[in-house]
Amino acid sequence: MAETVLQINKLTKNFGKLCAVNQLDLEVKRGQVFGILGPNGSGKTTTLGMLMGVTNPSSGSFSWFGEPSTHFTRKKIGAVLEHPIFYPYLSGQKNLELNAMIKGANPANIAKVLDIVELSARKDDKYKTYSLGMKQRLAIASALVSDPIILILDEPTNGLDPMGIAEIREIVKRIAADGKTIILASHLLDEVQKVCTHFAVLRRGKLMHSGPVDEVGKGEETVEVMAYHDDLSVLLQEFVGSATIKKENGIFQVMMKDGFHSQDLNKFLFEKGIITSHLVTKKKTLEKQFLEILAEAH
Fold first, then answer.
1. Does one domain contain both 60 and 115?
2. Residues 241-295: tens digit of each pLDDT
3. pLDDT of residue 137
4. Cα 128 from Cα 141, distance rounded (Å)
5. Closest residue by Cα to residue 195 from 164, 215, 172
6. Residues 93 and 21 both lie in one domain
7. Are 200 and 249 part of one and the same domain?
8. Contact at 8 Å (CB) between 197 and 238?
9. Are 238 and 263 in a shared domain?
10. Which of residues 215, 241, 257 is at a domain's end?
11. What pLDDT is stored for residue 109 in this prediction?
12. Are strands 181-186 and 33-37 parallel, antiparallel or unpaired?
């Protein structure tokens, strides 16, 4: 069994009457790339803030490496929560040297972390000449300078162009391949699917789901169909998206093949001249459920 590096029990944070994080239970094991997925305002940043000791929980608890959070345990964690302070007129290299000094980290790590975030070629250029993507990569490098066991990233691709997003994702994968445990907050399902091994979904501070990422595509949709037509069962079998068809109390339950949805079935029947009297998606794919949750805050 992999070692549990983070255990969260009933963690709660209230700001006045607003409950930002509500009775959160989570477990992250060593070597996982753990995504915390949720729309803006779902409590992701507040949760990370509590884990890093930036803000205190209202109730509940959490432990790192099986012990309560202390200054010593936090030294094993590198975090990019908001933009770190870098000096604009100093080079990337010099900024990291200062960072290493402040953290008491070994300056010998700097060359390696610059390599990981692909900034070796630009290390002697002033910070102010860096693009947004490069600034974000330097922030990740600064979190890695003390060679932490865990890396925490809050919305690492926010505000970046598609190329910058792709670069950060590749870097996250590379850091994970190096054996580090990563906890990453995001409002993009796509991002979590591409880089994470496990994830949790938050909605208004509550945990909606937790599990491995490869479960997301599973769980096909089931659609209930009724129509006044004698050959409905024959036609439902002709529909390419039907996996299995059952009839219960005069209603057909059509389990969809992967990637097919109720609108595809409706269109098929409509083209055959059948207007359904009842067409309801009973069970949604996880992906569809998450996309609906993520769309809520926009």
1. yes
2. 888 888 888 888 888 887 788 889 889 888 888 888 888 888 777 777 788 878 8
3. 95
4. 16
5. 172
6. yes
7. no
8. no
9. yes
10. 215
11. 94
12. parallel
Question: What is the CATH number for 291?
Answer: 3.30.70
Q: Six-digit token pair at 121?
A: 């070629």
Helix (H, G, I), strand (E, B) or coil at 288: helix
Residues 151-180: tens digit of each pLDDT: 999 999 999 999 999 999 999 999 999 899
Task: Yes or no: say if 183 and 34 are a contact pair by the CB < 8 Å rule.
Answer: yes
Q: Residue 217: is its pLDDT beyond 70?
A: no
Residue that is written with structure tokens 């100093």 in the block: 90
As a whole number of Å, the end-to-end CA separation of the chain is 40
Domain termination site, one of 215, 250, 283:
215
Q: Give yes or no: residues 206 and 281 share one domain.
A: no
- Work out the angle at residue 160's Cα, subtended by the Cα atoms of residues 120 and 6, and round it to the nearest 5 degrees: 80
Which residue do the tokens 């055959």 mark?
272
Residue 14, beta-bridge partner list: 19
Based on the fold, state whether residues 189 and 81 are members of the same structural domain. yes
Distance between CA atoms of residues 118 and 29, nearest Å: 28
Q: Kindly indicate the confidence band of residue 92, based on its pLDDT and cuts at 50, 70 and 90.
A: very high
Amino acid 20 reads: A
Total domain count, the chain: 2
- For residue 186, what is the domain's CATH number? 3.40.50.300
pTM as predicted: 0.80
DSSP string, 99-166: HHHHHT--TTHHHHHHHHTT-GGGTTSBGGG--HHHHHHHHHHHHHTT--SEEEEESTTTT--HHHHH
**Sign of the CA dihedral running 158, 164, 169, 173:** negative
Same domain, 172 and 282: no
Provide the pLDDT for residue 298: 52
Tokens, residue 180: 């580090």
- Do 279 and 156 lie in one domain? The reply is no
Boundaries of domain holding 55: 4-215
